[in-house]
Design goal:
The protein is elongated, with a radius of gyration of 33 Å. It is built from 14 helices and no strands. The protein has about 250 residues and is mainly alpha-helical. The chain folds into two domains: about 5-85, no CATH class; about 95-195, no CATH class. This is DUF1013 domain-containing protein.
Length: about 250
């Protein structure tokens, strides 16, 4: 066992009581760095009470002091016999009752933004059944009109690292099958760390797409000038003929 018990609660305590970097905390508790940042911002683990790793014999104050002085130092977990066998558990993912109502929103988010994920992968990420996933894919769910897509990581249903791993597996399988992907699909298949490390590519607005090679040459300008008509010429109408009979009348 190389990860602490109650990882998210431990991360909450470290964020509130230490000056450790997000990466140091994430490496120690086994969360994604963005999840730790979300804890600091109050977007993740709202209402979770911090779990003191020092009083619970998982970490020493000396180890925290070393890590605070050296940002590259990795925290080392104290050996705890009671934690043996807690890291890997077989069986379906348990979802707390308070979060089960959020699963349809997470499923819709995964189906919408990561359609390459299989029903089995989605089921493992959010702890749901394949019939529920299929009903949301086909928009036959009884409450589909009121479901709004929400990131399952923000809902606390899965870890960002788990989502990235599932997306990478889907990307590898799709490449092995030889399926063609668009640029937007390739961006979705990147992990969070890869996407954050990429430089922003300027994209041409769709309103002017296809006009990249359009230009005005001098010949075009001359031709346009030749075709221009003076506005005054429209008002130089020929004089109407004078009727001599009308002049002879008294």
């Amino acid at each position: 066992m190389n990860k602490p018990l109650m990882a998210k609660a431990t991360a909450v305590w470290l964020v509130d009581n230490t000056t450790l970097s997000f990466k140091q905390i994430a490496d120690f508790v086994g969360l994604h760095e963005l999840e730790v940042q979300g804890i600091a911002d109050g977007d993740v683990a709202a209402g979770v009470k911090g779990f003191d790793p020092i009083t619970n014999n998982q970490l020493t104050q000396d180890e925290i002091d070393k890590a605070e002085k050296d940002p590259f130092h990795k925290l080392k977990l104290k050996f705890n016999p009671a934690a043996v066998g807690e890291e890997k558990r077989r069986g379906p993912r348990y979802t707390p009752l308070s979060k089960r109502q959020d699963r349809p929103a997470a499923i819709l988010w995964l189906v919408k933004f990561h359609p390459e994920l299989t029903d089995g992968q989605v089921s493992k990420l959010v702890g749901t059944t394949k019939p529920t996933i299929q009903s949301i894919r086909e928009r036959t769910h009884w409450n589909i009109a009121n479901i709004q897509p929400i990131d399952p990581v923000a809902l606390g249903l899965c870890k960002q690292s788990e989502l990235d791993t599932a997306v990478q597996k889907a990307a590898a399988k799709r490449l092995a099958d030889g399926a063609a992907m668009t640029d937007d699909e390739r961006r979705k298949l990147l992990s969070t760390e890869q996407s954050l490390g990429m430089e922003a590519e300027p994209r041409m607005p769709t309103a002017i797409e296809g006009l990249e090679t359009f230009s005005l040459s001098d010949d075009d300008e001359d031709e346009k000038e030749d075709n221009l008509v003076d506005a005054d010429s429209f008002f130089n109408l020929p004089n109407a003929p004078v009727d001599d009979d009308e002049d002879d009348q008294p």
